[in-house]
Amino acid sequence: MGIIENPGRDGHLIYSKNTRRHEYGYRARARKQRIKILLTVLAAGLLITAVVFGVLKIRKLILAAKAEPEKEVIELDGFNDPDAPSAGEIIGEFPEEPEAPEKMEKLPFFEGYEVYKDGDTKGIYSEEIISNYAILIDLKTGHVVAERNGFSKMYPASMTKVLTLLVAAEHLDDLSATFTMTQDIADFVYTNDCSQVGYAVGETMTMKELLYGLIMPSGGDAALALARCVAGSTDAFVEMMNDKVAELGLQDVAHFTNPIGIFDEENYCTPAAMAMIMKAALENPVCREVLGQHIYVTAPTEEHPDGITLSNLFLRRIEDKETGGEVLGAKTGYVNESGNCAVSYSIQNSDSRYICVTGASKGAWRCIYDHCDIYTGFAE
User: Fold this and answer.
1) Which of 82, 121, 213, 234 has the greatest CB tally within 10 Å of its CB?
2) Distance from C-alpha of 321 to C-alpha of 343, rounded to nearest angstrom
3) Which of 40, 71, 102 delimits the end of a domain?
4) Which helix (DSSP H) or strand (DSSP E) does residue 240 occupy?
5) Could you report the per-residue pLDDT of 309-357, keeping only the tens digit for each?
C-alpha cells in the first residue's frame, strides 16, 4: 500500500495506520541490528585484550626464566636419602663447637652475678601484672630496672631446670653419648606427676636429646637421666647444683634439693637469683641454643619411629606478642605452691638486653602476658 498523504493543520503529513505499522517494524529491525553490531565489537575487544594479556604474561615468564638459574628440587622426605641427616640433625644440631643463633652471638653482659637497685629502680604496681614476684634486669649493667618482691624467697618449680641444664652442659663431654631409659625413672616421674618427654622404658636417646627434653617439654625423666649420667646419682648431682650456686655467689639466696623442681621448702631462690642463673646459662653456648629452640625433633627410634616433637610453648606463644623486641630464650615452671612462673631473655629493638623473672601468676597465658607487659612497660 502506498503512502497516503494528508496535510494536517500544522503542515505535517498524516500517515495511514498501515504505514505507521510498517515504520515501527523497520525501526525494530534497525535497533536489533545495531545491538548485534555492538555485541560483536565488544566480543572482539575482549578477545583482543585476552590475547594481548596472554602474550605479555608469556613474555614475562620467559624473561623470568632467563633471569633466574634453575633451582634444585629438594625432596621433603629426607629419610629416603641414605646420606640425609637424621631428624635430630635437621633441627637444632650442635656443631663441633656450638654456635648460637646470630642474635645471640654477642653477649654484652655485665660481669659477675651481683645485681643492684637504686633510686631509678621502679616498682611494679600495675594490677594488670598478676604475678606476685617479678624482676627485670638490664644485662648490660646489672641494674634492676623494675621489681615486685624481686629479692624475696620464692619456689622456682621447673625454672630449676635452667640450673640442671647448666650443670649438665658443663660436665658432658660427649653430647652423642647415649642413655637407656630405666623403669625406676619412669616410675618416679609418674608417681610424682612430673612433666615428661615420654621416653619408653628401654628406649635409647643421646645426651643432646636429653638436654632438649629437659627444657622444651620440661621433662622430669630427662632431668633424672642427666643427673645419673653426669653424677652417678640424683643426690650427687644436686650437690653439684648447689656447688654451682655457690660459684655464682648466690648461696645465700638460692638452694636446691632436686633437679626437677618438685616442691620442697628447701628448693628455693629469689627472682633475682633465678635471673642470674639464667644469665650464667646464656653465657654457655650449648645452654643458650637449647633455651632458644622453638621446635626440636628427636631421632627416630623403634619406640618412636617418627621421633618425638618437642616444643617450647612459652617461646611459641610469645613470639607474635608485643614485647618491644624479641624473646630469645625461656623456661617456665608450675607447682601449686609457686603458681605459674617463668624466666625469659629478650633483646629489645634498641639492642638492650634483659632478663625477666616472674612467679605466682594465675595461669600459663597470664604469665606470658605479664612478661609482655613488663618488657613493654619498663624495658628501653
Assistant:
1) 213
2) 16
3) 71
4) helix 234-247
5) 999 999 999 999 999 999 999 999 999 999 999 999 999 999 999 999 9
How far apart CA 198 and CA 141 sit, in angstroms, is 41
Residues 143 and 264 in one domain: yes
| Per-residue pLDDT at 97 | 39
Instruction: Residue 206: give the domain boundaries.
Output: 87-378
- Assigned domain for 80 exists: no
Cβ–Cβ < 8 Å for 105, 124: no
Give the separation between CA 52 and CA 322, rounded to whole angstroms.
48
Is the domain of 47 the same as that of 155? Answer: no
Judgement on whether residues 107 and 53 belong to the same structural domain of the protein: no
pTM of the model: 0.74
Same domain, 162 and 201: yes
Same domain for 67 and 95, yes or no, is no
Do residues 96 and 63 both lie within one domain? no
On whether residue 26 sits in a domain, the answer given is yes
Q: What is the CATH number of the domain that holds 266?
A: 3.40.710.10
Residue 45, pLDDT above cutoff 90: no
Name the residue among 361, 378, 294 with its Cα closest to residue 329.
294
138 part of a folded domain: yes
Angstrom distance (rounded) from CA 130 to CA 360: 8
Give residue 58's pLDDT. Answer: 58
CA 6 to chain centre: 95
Taking only the tens place, the pLDDT of each residue in 97-151 is 344 444 445 688 999 999 999 999 999 999 999 999 999 999 999 999 999 999 9
Q: pLDDT by residue (tens digit) across 73-90?
A: 222 222 233 333 333 333
81 domain residue, yes or no: no
Give, for 330, the enclosing helix (H) or strand (E).
strand 325-335
Q: Is 258 helix (H, G, I), strand (E, B) or coil?
A: coil
Q: Are residues 131 and 31 in the same domain?
A: no
Residue 331: beta bridge partners? 343
Please give the grid coordinates belonging to residue 333. Answer: 615452671
User: SS3 of 163, please?
Assistant: helix
Residue linked to cell 596472554:
54
What's the pLDDT band for 96 if we cut at 50, 70, 90?
very low
Contact 311, 298 (CB under 8 A): no
